[in-house]
Write a structure and sequence with these properties.
Length: about 350
Amino acid sequence: MPQNTHGRLVAVADTDAEHYLDSGQLSVLEQSFRNWIDESNRADIRLSRRRVFLIFLLIRYAGAKLNEILALHPYKDIDWSDHYILFRDTGDGEQSEPREVQIPETLSREVKDILSDPAFQKMSGGGLDVDPGFVRRKLYERAESCGFLKKLGGPEMLRKARAVELMRSSMPLPAVQMMLGHSTPNLTSSYVSFSREEIRKVARTFMEKESMRKTSARNSFFGKVEIIDRGDIQTRITIKTIDGFIITTIITNHSLERLGLSQGKLITAEVKAPSVILHGGDTASSCSAENRLKGKVTRITKGEINTECIVTVSETTEICAVVSSAENQSISLREGEEIWAMFNCFSVVLHAE
């Protein structure tokens, strides 16, 4: 794809939704575990169930392999201040580099509370060395108790569900791959411009936002400031994302100084879905929107007042737009059609981390 292409980026899974649990179903499964713990009147059984629940949480939010978690030394390998887990061992005899996995602060606090219980410490002996077959059976049982297919509760499927959840929520694909420990990250044209530490920082930023999201913007970009073109009143900022796209925005000089922007700084840009303009035809409209991207309509959700349209522009990239239902009829949106998605540089809001 040309480097001067513009658009909002959301990595999309290449699988059908029926093959993994979505965020809502994962929440139902998590609550099922909590209820399961409270169902027993025996303290020793509750402790045993809490250990299985802890393993579930680490798979569900850290996207770790079951063997990695069972080989974990939780009292030594979790950083409570910066909220990350250091996985040193795959647990299956394979040689691999230790990797830091960022986790949401809310999860970090809950895991710390569980591990701080003296009774849990005595029972666990400082580790999570549980028979993997037993853990799998309990994961399957909880999935079936929620009315889900048994296999969807397995460790591998939970990892897959977490990866899809992260990508659907705008986390760039290379950051997801690094988090899950993929040995061969997707080397897009832009990936080589970002160091591993910068990608880790993107992951940390995303986890912070996942813990306490306060913005209503649907469209998020994670990237690096490429060009700063300062004028007498306003400044044009060009951002290059991890996925290899270019985002252009214009901010005031005061905002430039307040955000402390400089070339190479990591930045988050957001655009609300109603700010995205859709236009059919082979050529883009001659409107003033500087950011333009051609893609294919892959999903339409119609409402009485508004219609949500998802435009896929690459294997891992979507654009979300919300238009009035009347406008939807005027441009005849249909799934499978090619369409232009555009937004004005003044619609882009920057967040320095």
